[in-house]
Specification:
64 residues; 2 strands; single chain; two-stranded antiparallel sheet; elongated; alpha+beta
């Protein structure tokens, strides 16, 4: 897919067209967001930061 996008921009990219810049920036943003989602690290503790208290019916901070 990235190759097809690169071919599109090689052949028909017009630097004076604002829509082409917006499209290019949106592609770069989607790729960066996907990489961030794929590589973000979990918490150091591995425990959830909040929990549901069944007695009170509220969400509380997990102090354990």
């Amino acid at each position: 897919m990235v190759g097809a996008i690169a071919m599109y921009f090689d052949e028909s990219f017009d630097p004076e067209n604002l829509e082409h810049w917006l499209l290019l920036l949106s592609f770069i943003g989607v790729i960066c967001y996907g990489l961030w989602l794929g590589f973000k690290m979990p918490d150091q503790t591995g425990k959830p930061s909040h929990r549901y208290n069944r007695q009170t019916g509220r969400i509380e901070r997990n102090e354990d």
